[in-house]
Amino acid sequence: MSIPADRTPLPKAIAILGPTATGKTALSVEIAQWLQTEIISADSQLIYRELSIGTAKPSLAEQGGIPHHLIDVAEPTEVYSAASYQEQASSVLKALQQAGKIPLVTGGTGFYLKALLQADFIPSVPPNPAFREAMHQLAQAHGSDFLHQKLNALDPVRAEALHPNDTVRIIRALEIINATGLPVPNAPIQKSLDVLWLGLMYEDRDLLRARIDARIEAMMEAGWLEEVESLVRQYGPEAHALHVAHGYPELMRVVLGQCSLPEALEQVRLNIHQYSRRQMTWFRRNPDIHWLACDTVESTLRVDWAKTRILEWLNP
Fold this sequence. Notes:
single chain; alpha/beta; Rossmann fold; Histone, subunit A; two-stranded antiparallel sheet; about 55% helix
């Protein structure tokens, strides 16, 4: 479907977002097929190659013949920054718009969605090796939670978007604050885009928790622990992705003999439940999101709902 004549000069994009385990991927593929467009992932878990089972990375069959961008763009050993995402995803977004397509951005990483669709807010602060080393020493002495708490005191919005174990991004945020004296974002420049925001959520938190737990169980049955074991064997326990992708640090401790599998899985469930709450806290700051409560809505009706919202947006 091509972009119809519209009096507004702003380029268009659609975002399908929501917390983990709400069915964003399946809905996005259906809508992308209908619009004859392509998908840009806004998921910080999917950027790493070889982390597939535990990130719920869509298979080729699940992608439904739709090109997916910003998936498998980093090695497990690589530190992939939000600035890198902003640069790469923006390039894809513009290329699709220039080709007459409406880009479909889907994912649950609020920081990525904002960087791509709302504002350029990642300042150009050069690396400060001395500062980073000092922060690493603090983390080693007091734990990564110490740095996360330090960031929370200076920039609670950014801290809320980062997992306490994501030491690299926490240090980067502290580095920016140290250099500029301001939290991230720093003097954002608003994007000139016409974005339709579609959100999937569950009003019943117990139902969403049950879906998350069922997904974790399915991942384990699919060989998640074996995937982590293979990654540790190939890249070593210091590989960056194994410390920042949800569930991987806990399962790595099992592989290394540092805790039992039941203990690790209980922590994985707890951490992902907490992450889904943080996602909703972030999304609720955006008043433009059209929400669909999926508690009792079948997948076909979700597609109908999304198509209706899109047609209303295209033909006001």
